[in-house]
Amino acid sequence: MAFYFAQLLTGMANASALFLVASGLSIIFGVTRVVNFSHGSLYMLGAYIAYSSMTVLPGIIGFWASILVAGLAVGLIGMIIEVCVLKPIYKAPELFQLVATFGVILVIQDMALLIWGPEDLFGQRAPGFEGVVEIFGERVPSYDLVLIVLAVVVLIGLWYLFTKTRVGILVRAATQDREMVSALGVNQSVLFSGVFFLGAFLAGIGGAAQLPKGSANLLMDFGILAPIFVVVVTGGMGSIWGAFVAAMLISVLQVYGIRFLPNSTLVLMFIVMAVVLVIRPWGLFGKPEAAGDHGSQGPPPKPFRQLDPSGRIIVAVIIAALTLVPLSGVNFLSVLFADIIIFCLFAASLHYILGVGGLVSFGHAAFYGGGAYVAALFVQYAGTPMELALMLAPLGAGFAALIIGWFCVRLTGVYFAMLTLACAQVLWSIVFQWDEVTGGDDGMLSIWPSAWASEPGVYYYLVLVLGVGGVLVLRAMAHTPFGYALRGTRDSALRTEAIGMNVKLIQWMAFVFAGAMAGLAGGLFVFAKGSVFPTEMEIATSFDALIMVFLGGVQSLTGPIAGASVFTLLQDWLSRFEYWRLLLGLLIIFIAILLPGGLAGAVDQVKALLGRAPKDEAAP
Amino acid sequence: MSFLTVQNLYKSFGGNRAVDDVSFALAKGELLALIGPNGAGKSTCFNMLYGILAPDKGSVCLDGRELIGMKPRDIWRLGVGRTFQITAVYASMSVVENVQMALISHHRKTFSAFTRAARLYRDDAMALLNLIGMKDQADRAANILAYGDLKRLELAVAMAHDPALLLMDEPTAGMAPGERRALMKLTADIVAERGVSVLFTEHDMDVVFENAHRVLVLNRGQLLAEGSVDDVRANPAVQEVYLGGGTTFGGDGDHA
Amino acid sequence: MRLSKFLTGGLVAAVSAVWGVNAMAADTIKIGDINSYKRLPAHTIPYKKGTELAIDMINNAGGVLGKKLEIVSRDDQGKPGEAVKIAEELFTRDGVVMISGSLFSHIGLALTSYAGQKKRLYLAAEPLADALVWAKGNRYTFRLRPSTYMQAAMLAEAAAKVSTAKKWATIAPNYAYGKDAVGAFKKVLKAIRPDVEFVTEQWPGLFKIDAGAEVQAIEAAKPDAIYNVTFGGDLAKFVREGDLRGLFKGRLTLGLLTGEPEYLDPLKGDAPAGWIVTGYPWYAIKDAAHQKFVDAYQKKFSDYPRIGSIVGYNTMLSVAAALKKAGSTDTEKLVDAFEGLDVDTPMGKVHYRKIDHQSTMGAWVGKIAVKDGKGMMVDWAFKDGAKYLPSDAEVMKMRPAK
Fold it and tell me: Do C291 and C279 fall into the same domain?
């Protein structure tokens, strides 16, 4: 019994940092509707700043003062991010802020490397709490108890702030109805900045407070990102109590999971979240989202149009130019452009559900990587020739999407996004842990094209045909009745049902189709690289695709193509420099601020400047 | 013979009886207005008829078929069109495409993958737009339409599958008085010509009295009065509800 | 149309500037270097410094085959697909004669597969995966660093020498390296002491350890000894929690790689005294060749060497030696030269085995002690890698037929 109690305390102590950081994320989302991807970076900065501060301010007072200093400093940094990066793009299409906060992540990663160096900075023990206390004969680190108390204090503090103070009540009002805030005479701009300060402050405290349990290091930012999103979504976006309960639930389950199912550590929390979301689609304490509640709407989208003649000529010229690439005689160019075409197809398949259907998926890599693995598995175990494997890849990925989609389309908005993420993680962990079949993270090797296509130049043509073909099919599918119906579900689910269409069925089928096309991209990828690893199913790969789509412009069919090409080329080019993440991050932030419509939106901007604005409201 | 029969409909929200034993019938070709002050239960009633809300008990029969338990899309397939208080159109499509979508659905071409949507049933859609006088706006984007035009567009969409019954929730809410009359006149003409039955809720009493064949008055979830325009107008209980409740005939802004 | 012409023109110019063919300078021999410089910089930056030091030295001594060596170094972003793309670029655009580098096993394996398919030479410097030279090995891939199996075998042998512990617990990150390390350790230890029993195996996610819970779970299994494979941030957390809760008291604990400065030094005074570890006691090695390396390194970078530094250094020495032996930059000749190549390094002679292309570079095994608030390896001994490899027959069985 005592042992289980001690484990419970361990779980609660772990929940503490998770809750501090997650509550900040939840508050920011609740009020501003910004999904702040850079929240993990703020947590990391909290740890680093506290470390530096502790070396200057020693002793008990120095220790606690350092935690406060870290919180305040990170709060300030959060506010600067809000003012400089997010404020200019609140009017952009929903969730576009993802791109900008992704840029912030890259910038902070390189800045931290520059300032604090590559080595882990091991935190000092908390003065006065270096040892253990015996509880029922079990040793419990006294600092664990401090963390638990800290979490409860913060919870009560937030509760007091939001229910007993005028400012807090205004913030809560803003959470429920953003329009109302200005009616109450509150300066929304100041409110948002203040909320960012508070959210970042909590992240900073969270990072600083865990220092005595480990180190400040460069992997903290991505390390905590998935867990805090899981906590916030499981608890219900915007709910402080939800964040607290979910953090406790997940951390405590994790502790018992380690004891009884040591292999479960990678997926346990995702499974918990998936189960919660399937039963309660808005998390434990969340409220149903109103339509379009996940971020500002931006300018109304324009009807899709077929390309005008000059557009067709441009496309023909580009395709013709692409056919010339292998003739350059530089194999590398064929390889690079094959990569770009594959990513274009991947991004375009995500865009089909995201841009056309309005369903933001955080787990699209499941189908991309899934397709790659299907092809690789068939080659390895059935000796399937490449030609057949390339057909099986989209089928397999589509089948995975059929199952995952059935659960996911019942949800909307951020909850949909997070359930796709959870499903992708589960699939990833199967591939990652099932060594005997998938090779685990040692991957599957020697999956090369058939002899006739083994030359990079020849394989490039295969990629060109299937990749560009796939993109054109996706494009054509946007113009079919099905594509229109999908767009209809995004515009107005109510109307769609009221003209006899089954919204969920349409979304489900679109999910399957997009999954299959991502699978084709994955199949092309595996033969281009000759190997596949679980990396291709990771969250980071899903995010790459999201960034490509948002960067290119959600509301245009050419957006994902532009986004994938530019993102891949930029990354390829900038990674030649030492601090390329800093450069890439700044560039992404700039693009996000200057071109809130994405790159494709920029084309319209340029046309308007040149006085060649399209006559009506058609987007290419 | 009644075409739509509503019997003993009940719905309460947390002890509050929003709709309390409502029964009525609608004949073929009839224009029936459902009126009542704020919170009378009109929208709740509407949503139950259209499968959006499940009643606690009661029955809704359309031409002998029970609608309770059916989904909105299935009710639509039985020939029921619907317009909304807050217009629900496809903002990212053109005017004519909005109508085409209803036609595509009607012809069960939703999952068709080998044609271009913009080409399907365009002529039929144009004919419907002609009917409501919006042919010249066919290729404009729906998101830049004036409010009155949106309401008209919804009417065209609702009429696309040639429904036998039209449910219109506050069809003229938010419009200028002149526009209201024009729209209801248009509606009345169309349904008269096609023999469509219409059930509509409405705030503007002038609109109601000018067009409705019969009027139902709801108050606090219960049917207060029923009858011809003149009967209802003269009914003291109705006058009490409207005048005593501080709302005048012709008031606006119902969110019940 | 004018706009698009302008854009196209600009694009073409930009593309050829960045991605066009580099003039292939004839006066240097280029070596491609691919590593995860951003994903795990604590390990890869010392590696890079090591390669730079070696190149300086080689070039100052007149280069190889009458030409200077030049490293073209690229970051793989921690993605295997990216690494393969970069490899292609290095070969076809930059004109490198071979590639070397990489830290993560999966990236090393991706490059192994690439090298085998394209018949291009790859010297894997740091990745530890056993499969790289065995199950997935091929003619065109060689590996320098002692593999997971070798290091685990060294630890198992050391453990069997000092302790009769029967009940063992293992803790390793939940990925291929961790699993290989546990598998190899179990195999070798059981061969030496058939009576050992493994009472619990813990698998925290890589860099996601929940140290308190792991320590409790191990404690609950009541082992006599613990075998640790965690490293980096995970190790720091595990050591602190284990120390607090008294997990290591009275128990023999082994740490794979724990004695490498990359992982030991951040722990400072918290370094787990008494653990038996593999690592790199650069501060205590008195051998002249090694001292020369340390001095040169400290002079050039004002920093002390890590294990990555010496691996990087030895990598470039191996490349130079192979070029010299082959007398050519031709891939097939280089492969032939690498097979059976002997290289003199600060760690003594390293031999690239013909049978599986694994080098015999060894490692140091010792005990951790804390001195002046710093972790150190004491009572260490250098273990020659050649002695910790499976028999030739076993290797032949594992390596795919040619």
Answer: no
CATH number for the region A2-279 comes to 1.10.3470
Cβ contacts below 8 Å, chain A against chain C, sum to: 207
Number of domains in chain C: 2
Same-domain status, C110 and C22: yes
Residue C222 shares a structural domain with residue C162: yes
Q: Is the CA virtual torsion A509, A514, A515, A521 positive or negative?
A: positive
- A263 touching C (Cβ < 8 Å): yes
Residue matched to tokens 């949507």: B117
Which residues in chain C come in under a pLDDT of 70?
1-26, 401-402
- Give the span between the Cα atoms of A70 and A64, in whole angstroms: 10
Do A2-279 and A330-607 come out as alike in CATH topology?
yes
Q: Which chain A residues are closer than 8 Å to C19 by Cβ?
A: 332-333, 336, 572-573
Residues C167 and C263 in one domain: yes
> Mean pLDDT for chain A?
88
Is A575's CB within 8 Å of C241's CB? no
Q: Nearest-CA distance from C283 to chain A in Å? A: 19
Q: Is residue C401 part of a domain?
A: no
- Predicted pLDDT at C125: 95
Dihedral angle sign, alpha carbons of residues A465, A470, A475, A477: positive
Q: What DSSP character marks residue A356?
A: I
Strands A132-135 and A138-141: antiparallel
A188: closest CA of chain C, how far (Å): 38
Shortest Cα–Cα distance, C164 to chain A (Å)? 26
Angle between helices B95-106 and B122-131 (to 10 degrees): 120
Lowest mean pLDDT among A12-16, A33-37, A212-216: A33-37
3-state secondary structure of C205: coil
Q: At what angle do helices A97-116 and A39-56 cross, to 10 degrees?
A: 20
Q: Is residue C402 in a domain?
A: no
Q: What is the pLDDT of residues C63-116, one digit of tens each?
A: 999 999 999 999 998 889 999 999 999 998 889 999 999 998 889 999 999 999
Of A145, A150, A203, the closest CA to residue A28 belongs to A203
Q: Are residues C227 and C372 in the same domain?
A: yes
Query: A56: exposed, middle or buried (C-beta count within 10 Å: 0-12, 13-18, 19+)?
Result: exposed
Nearest-Cα distance to chain B for A475, in Å, is 11
Q: How far is CA A28 from CA A78, A103, A192, A297, in A?
A: 11, 18, 8, 18
Q: Residues of A near B (CB-CB distance < 8 A)?
A: 300-304, 306, 477, 479-485, 487-488, 490-492, 494-495, 497-502, 506, 509, 616-617
- N residues, chain B: 256
The CATH number of the structural domain formed by A330-607 is 1.10.3470
Tell me which chains share at least 3 CB pairs under 8 Å with chain B.
A
ipTM value: 0.89
DSSP3 helix / strand / coil % (chain A, rounded to 5): 75, 5, 20
Residue B75 contacts residue B67 (beta carbons within 8 Å): yes
For residues A60-85, give the mean pLDDT.
Answer: 94
Q: Are residues C368 and C355 part of one domain?
A: no
- Are C353 and C381 found together in one domain? no
For residue B74, list chain A residues with Cβ-Cβ distance below 8 A: 500
Residues B72-92: tens digit of each pLDDT: 999 999 999 999 888 889 988
- Give the residue from A297, A475, A477, A495 with the most B CB atoms within 10 Å of its CB, the best one to mutate: A495
Question: What's C254's domain CATH number?
Answer: 3.40.50.2300
- Count of C-beta atoms within a 10 Å radius of residue A193: 19
Domain ranges in chain A are 2-279, 330-607
Instruction: Taking residues B173-192, report their average pLDDT.
Output: 85
C116 and C203, same domain (yes or no): no
Domain that holds residue C225: 149-284+363-388
